[in-house]
Amino acid sequence: MKAAVLESYNHFVWKDVETPKVKPDEVLVRIQFASICGTDMHIFPGDFHPRSPVPFIPGHEMGGVVAEVGNGVSGFNPGDKVAVDPIIWCGECPACKRKHYPACTSLKLLGVDMNGGFAEYISVPPHMLFKTAPHIPDQHVALVEIYGIGFHANNRAQTAEGDIIAIWGAGRVGQVILQAARTKTTGTIFMVDPLENRLQIAVGNYDNVIPVNPKKENPVEVIRKHTGGKGVDIAFEAVGHAEEIEGVNTPVRSCIQSLRGGGKVCVLGLGDEPAPIVFKELIWKEGQIITSRVSDGEFTEVIDHLNAGNLKPDALISKVMPGSETQQAFELLQKEKGKYLKVLLDFS
Ligand SMILES: NC(=O)c1ccc[n+]([C@@H]2O[C@H](COP(=O)([O-])OP(=O)(O)OC[C@H]3O[C@@H](n4cnc5c(N)ncnc54)[C@H](O)[C@@H]3O)[C@@H](O)[C@H]2O)c1
Ligand SMILES: [Zn+2]
Ligand SMILES: [Zn+2]
């Protein structure tokens, strides 16, 4: 088969590699599309070394069609459309014993810790596969994983009907948090991002979304004004490496300041810098800070909503490129960071 192999850091080679042999307890999937994630952009230059050693095949957001079913597997047939859940937890650590799988101390992912989906085929155990309805476009199947992040965050924060929400970061993660939140609440959603093009994607696709550009107005003041001084029920932080903006506090502190009494902040951004907060501001509200990592069983929920037409996957897709141009796709994303949301690679 052909695969986009990261031969050395910053250097993909589109080449022939051995097609995985399907074991009796595995299913061979013919990958149709894979999506490039922010994590892949860190793996590419070697930030994940030695966790992601080269040469290897990255790609942890992927969808495809069942090509072959191992003779010990039931419930799958060639031609089934499937999304691949890349997460591998150990089952033994204290978190796993409590079924808190995203907190597994040795959590691994296909395409991060081992070969993944930037290839024509992958062979995986059936518990990692989730069938979509046949009418779902192949490109959308590749987005189930990132949607899982958005749904998991909302489930962690227990978003409920009527909740008013603020989301810092209208990038890939912020947009899926928004789409997932909209399946759970019709309440106002504030989107905070200095990039106008990303705010417009949110506003253009959903009613009752208020865009806030922190370079133009203070998000906490805007939120207070629109909520009659009350604040939001939940504030999500989906920024990570925050751009410093004069006169505006960092995203996590702004999230806390925008909360109503008893509200929740849910942090997803994986910045390396400390995020300064003033605990008094949280304690006065007896607010909670929770975090959300990857997903935990949300593939089924995502697929139910996709099948029912409740999500807007096309709003996330900025560009589709052939798998043979994986190197060019990564270079493009490095050069024009804020221009694209999801770039899909076509392996069909
Ligand atoms: N916890 C998880 O499960 C999980 C999963 C995937 C990604 N992440 C992390 O989530 C973060 C976001 O990922 P992404 O792919 O959406 O990145 P992204 O770059 O697409 O989005 C980040 C957005 O934040 C905006 N931003 C920067 N500074 C800001 C500020 N001061 N205020 C408001 N917005 C600001 C940027 O303009 C950008 O649009 C990253 O740190 C990533 O590593 C976490
Ligand atoms: Zn990812
Ligand atoms: Zn574990």
From TrEMBL:
Superkingdom of the source species: Bacteria
Keyword Amino-acid biosynthesis: no
Pfam families: ADH_N, ADH_zinc_N
Cofactor dependence: Zn(2+)
Domain (Alcohol dehydrogenase-like C-terminal) ranges: 173-306
Keyword Zinc in annotation: yes
PANTHER family hit by this protein: L-THREONINE 3-DEHYDROGENASE
Family that this chain belongs to: Belongs to the zinc-containing alcohol dehydrogenase family.
Record-given protein name: L-iditol 2-dehydrogenase/L-gulonate 5-dehydrogenase
Species of origin: Mariniphaga anaerophila
